[in-house]
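Thread: quick sanity check before group meeting

JM: Hey all, I'm pulling together slides for Thursday and realized we never actually wrote out the predicted structure for the chain we discussed last week. Dropping the sequence here so it's in one place. If anyone has concerns about the input, flag it before I start.
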Amino acid sequence: MRGSWFVWWIANIIWIVLFAIGSYIVWTREVDGAGIPQTPELKLIAFIVLLVAFIIAFIIQIVWFFVIFKKSNNY
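JM (edit): ok, ran it. Output follows.
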């Protein structure tokens, strides 16, 4: 069970780092991949899309946490 907790923490750290890098890229870029200049409104929309993707990952992490927690209490 100890390995499951370790993997869970490592996965959380990876998700936090990916979110931080993605947020930095969204907020600092001047032009997106299609060549469209980024206004604050477009940056906000891109950030919201990124946030929705990470909310889905967050929900999966919460479910994973409860599964590990239940298994560790049964032993």
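AS: nice. The helical segments are 2-28, 40-74. The radius of gyration is 17 Å.
JM: adding both to the slides.
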